[in-house]
Design brief:
The complex is a heterodimer of chains A (380) and B (563). Chain A has helices at residues 15-37, 51-75, 82-101, 114-118, 134-158, 163-182, 208-234, 236-246, 248-253, 258-284, 294-307, 312-332, 337-350, 355-372; strands spanning 194-195, 199-200, 203-204, 286-287. Chain A is mainly α and 380 residues long. In chain A, strands 1-4 form a two-stranded antiparallel ribbon. Chain B folds into two domains: 46-152, no CATH class; 260-386 and 402-562, ABC transporter involved in vitamin B12 uptake, BtuC (Orthogonal Bundle). Chain B is elongated. The chains are: A mainly alpha (380), B mainly alpha (563).
């Protein structure tokens, strides 16, 4: 259940917000590298090298959760296709990284990636052209998911496919992409996907310093994504989105273009998911079609739910917490992970629909109201 | 739903049909028990005309020189007498013995048997017997003779296989043997196969008239082997123009037939896939239609049903006499229905009823339930696939027009699916529970005002939908393996069926499932299995843009309220 603050709306860009945002940014950008580089490795607070890409991965998931929260929490669109946008961004980055391998592959072919040599391809397919340039790959990271979302969203929102119907057809889209990327003759590495990367922008992806750089890039991307989402929801468009989430027909009758508003925010969200995927791939070192599996996309929704739907920071918190739990549990007792995840789905929807951040905010408002002398029961 | 499984008992397939497509297990049994049967058969039905030849040839096997033995072997092969199989097999295995008085005997374990009469002989001293030797050349002759003789085997499956084999490798010398075999053959389908092989042999070696007649016969078949043979025949440079023309006519007629067979096969497989989808989707259509609830755990209800069938099978194997094992399926259907239904009611009471009016949250919560159920089954039964075998009356199949096999388990599922659909239509339209259900679907507050306990209707509806999913699981266990992620394979497809057909509408689900199944199977040969599926998915996504409420949409006020 999304949270809307009671009482008069405060400015989204108060000094207090900036203070908190900058503080979080400093902690993430400075503390981790310092603890990694300058604290002796045997110290308690030291961040070992293997942890850096893991933290970077969580931040990518955070950005992905943020992108889903933007459309689900604020516009009421539960997309089960965000895993697909994420994977598409990841594949674009993977293609760039594959081209960077050059002649260092197993077959030493200067033009073709190993899997194409293995499958007896003779020349680079047209959709691989340009991926040896980072700028082209970076543009594609945003354009491919963005265009797919634009076309798909235009078709869906124009004919007023809403609610669970939209969820189901986005899931069908994800499933179709999953099947497509599993095919060897698609030219994306089939079910093995793409891996064995060597370097990115000239730096070795296995070097700790490169990984630290990727981590910092993830922090920056997450911060910028957060600011963008906050800008959108605090704008007039954001108010329209909230309104159409709660009463779509009424907004339509009031003369707003529901289709365009949804389409815009859906596309932005898909682009954010694509960027998250692009940052994710060099840090985990592989992209394969299982990223498209429908289960992954549904899991994103539970990150958002746990953190608090309709609270941007909640999405990030939820993504990080759930994935921390996943890393820990799959290491300690792998067979309990699905029980835990399943219980999380049931409990957050049944018992804690507001999520962690939502509950904290509610508690704060209740306290504020109590001190102002308003009975707590009056707020809905 | 006790009505349904009467249809399953619709008598076992006729013996003639079953005999021809024997399963592997049955073949082994034939091998073991068969020898005794052969002896009986021979005593009763051995053609006396050949008796003298047979006796002389068998005693010739005891000759000293290998070349004499070889001639006898070849002659025995040409003789077309089923008894020769026993003798030649024994010779090949080194079990053919020669008594001092010149009699030839077959050793079986400690016993010795007279190959002529098939009776056991007790008057021979074991140590006086000599083993008849074979060399490699003789072994080659034995293989050839045995191959020809299988045309006369008592085992119909072996005869059929031999006829097929003769078709695959037609040789001019086979014609005479095949003619003999056809004359002796009683079963029409095997005789037809032999006649095809005979035509193929005559095409290679016969006179011009025989070749023309053979071409006419071969034109009525659908076998790709024959097509290759005719292609070669036509392409041969020295073929007579008239024969070539006849070959072309035969070829085009075969191609027409093959096209028809392909059409029929696609249609059948499409209907079969459609009925599987329908079974998987009916339950979903009910819960989605009546309650507006997206049950992502529906696939797991199917999976639970399949495991119920597995457990029933194991229990029958463990505790009941072996002859009862075929009945496990009949028991599994109500068990799966009740078990999955009970899980469904529990799920509704414990989770879903708190989430009415929040369809997206229901989707997430039921997804969580599906993860838990999957992991639970994995913990109990382990991740590897479990095998649920078809009962004997569902194994095998028949070939209606030549070229593709209609398997009984697929036919069973189609019939079962129709029975479930019919029973469900009866429940919806003829019982008070169905009336209540329809009332709640159409107008929940009004139904409640009229005294219908909507909460109870919800729980029972959910139980019914889940129970049907459980029965779908039993059906799926008959065509594939049972694994913890069985449900996830079908969940996306069944949602698409429901959305395509229109929500809350049995007719829509029926049409949706069948058309998806058939379209899928017709696309497969053109585009490949995966690409075909992708095309269907994209087509449905586009279709939903045109008709967001599906093929058979509900009309009226309820429609907007649902969204």
């Amino acid at each position: 259940m999304p949270v809307s603050p009671p009482g008069p709306r405060k400015s989204a860009w108060s000094a207090r917000f900036w203070a908190g945002f900058v503080a979080c940014g400093i902690v993430l950008v400075l503390v981790v590298p310092i603890l990694n580089l300058w604290v002796p490795p045997n110290s308690v607070v030291a961040v070992p090298d293997y942890l850096v890409p893991l933290l970077g991965k969580y931040l990518c998931y955070g950005l992905l959760a943020l992108s889903l929260d933007l459309i689900w929490g604020y516009a009421g669109i539960l997309s089960l296709g965000h895993g697909a946008f994420f994977a598409l961004g990841g594949y674009c980055m993977g293609m760039y990284l594959m081209r960077q391998i050059g002649t260092r592959g197993v077959y030493g072919n200067p033009l073709l990636p190993d899997f194409m040599v293995f499958l007896n391809w003779k020349e680079l397919p047209w959709f691989w052209w340009g991926f040896d340039h980072f700028a082209w790959a970076a543009a594609m990271v945003m354009l491919v998911p963005g265009l797919l979302a634009l076309v798909f969203g235009w078709l869906a929102f124009r004919s007023r496919v809403t609610g669970v119907y939209l969820s189901i057809i986005t899931q069908a889209m994800t499933y179709a992409l999953l099947l497509a990327f599993f095919r060897n003759d698609m030219g994306f590495g089939g079910n093995n996907g793409m891996t064995d990367y060597k370097d990115i922008l000239g730096w070795d992806v296995h070097q700790p310093s490169t990984r630290l750089g990727l981590y910092v890039a993830s922090v920056v991307a997450l911060g910028l994504g957060y600011l963008l989402c906050r800008f959108i929801i605090s704008s007039k468009l954001g108010r329209v989105l909230l309104a159409l989430r709660d009463a779509e027909s009424r907004v339509r009758f009031l003369g707003y273009s529901v289709t365009n508003a949804k389409l815009f925010v859906f596309t932005v969200s898909a682009v954010l998911a694509g960027i998250a995927g692009a940052l994710y791939v060099p840090q985990v070192g592989i992209i394969n079609p299982s990223e498209f599996s429908p289960g992954n996309s549904i899991e994103i929704a539970i990150w958002v739910s746990v953190g608090g739907r309709g609270t941007l920071s909640g999405a990030i918190v939820g993504a990080v917490l759930v994935n921390l739990a996943k890393t820990w549990l799959t290491g300690v007792a792998p067979e309990t992970w699905l029980f835990f995840l399943g219980a999380l789905f049931v409990l957050t929807t049944l018992v804690f629909p507001r999520g962690i951040v939502g509950l904290l905010r509610q508690a704060r408002w209740t306290r504020a109201r109590a001190t102002a002398g308003v009975p707590a029961g009056e707020q809905a | 739903m006790p009505l349904t499984h009467h249809r399953w008992r619709d008598g076992p397939p006729s013996p003639a049909l079953r005999e021809r497509v024997l399963s592997g297990a049955e073949r082994v049994r034939v091998g073991v028990v068969g020898l005794a049967a052969i002896l009986l058969f021979l005593l009763a039905a051995a053609p006396p005309a050949h008796a003298d030849d047979f006796t002389t040839l068998v005693s010739a096997l005891g000759a000293d020189s290998f070349s004499e033995k070889e001639q006898a072997v070849i002659a025995l092969g040409k003789l077309g007498d089923g008894r020769a199989i026993l003798v030649l097999t024994a010779l090949k295995d080194g079990r053919l013995l020669k008594a001092p008085d010149g009699r030839i005997l077959i050793a079986r374990g400690a016993k010795t048997i007279d190959p002529l009469s098939g009776t056991e002989l007790s008057d021979v001293a074991a140590d006086a017997l000599d083993r008849i030797r074979v060399n490699n050349r003789l072994r080659g002759a034995l293989e050839g003779a045995l191959g020809e003789l299988t045309l006369f085997s008592v085992d119909p499956a072996a005869r059929y296989a031999a006829a097929q084999d003769a078709l695959r490798h037609p040789s001019p010398g086979q014609a005479a043997l095949l003619e003999k075999a056809i004359a002796a053959e009683k079963q029409p389908d095997i005789r037809a196969a032999m006649e095809q092989s005979l035509s193929a042999a005559r095409l290679l070696s016969g006179s011009r008239e025989e070749q023309l007649a053979a071409l006419r016969t071969l034109g009525t078949t659908t076998d790709p082997q024959i097509k290759n043979l005719l292609d070669q025949f036509r392409a041969a440079p020295d073929t007579d123009p008239e024969l070539r023309k006849a070959a072309e006519t035969a070829l085009s007629s075969i191609e027409n037939r093959l096209w028809l067979v392909g059409l029929a096969a696609n249609l059948f497989h499409g209907i079969s896939l459609g009925s599987v989808l329908l079974l998987a989707a009916i339950g979903l259509a009910i819960t989605f239609g009546v309650m507006g609830v997206i049950n992502m755990a529906h696939g797991e209800m199917i999976m639970l049903g399949a495991y119920a069938a597995y457990v029933c099978q194991q229990l029958f194997r463990e505790f009941l006499p072996a002859s009862w094992i075929d009945g496990y399926l009949v028991a599994a259907i109500p068990v799966a229905f009740l078990f999955a239904g009970a899980v469904g009611v529990a799920l509704e009471r414990s989770v879903i009823r708190f989430l009415y009016g929040r369809p997206l949250e229901t989707l997430l919560a039921t997804w969580g339930v599906s993860l838990i159920l999957q992991q639970m089954v994995r913990s109990i039964f382990g991740s590897p696939n479990r095998e649920v075998s078809n009962p004997s009356w569902m194994t095998g199949g028949f070939d209606p027009i030549g070229g593709f096999t209609v398997t009984w388990n697929r036919v069973g599922i189609i019939i079962f699916c129709l029975a479930v659909l019919g029973a469900l239509a009866l429940i919806l339209n003829r019982t008070s529970f169905g009336l209540h259900m329809r009332a709640v679907t159409q107008n929940r507050p009004m139904a409640s005002v009229m005294g219908i306990r909507t909460a109870r209707v919800d729980a029972l509806t959910f139980g019914l939908g889940s129970g049907i999913a459980g029965m779908a699981g039993v059906a799926l266990s008959q065509i594939g393996n049972v694994s913890p992620n069985l449900g996830t394979i079908y969940i996306v497809d069944s949602f698409l069926v429901v959305v395509f057909g229109g929500v809350g509408n049995l007719l829509g689900t029926f049409v949706g499932a069948l058309s998806l199944g058939i379209v899928n199977k017709f696309l497969e040969p053109v585009a490949g299995a995966i690409l075909g599926k992708i095309v269907v998915l994209v087509a449905i996504i586009l279709f939903i843009q045109r008709r967001p409420r599906g093929l058979f949409a509900l009309k009226g006020r309820t429609v907007e309220a649902e969204a």
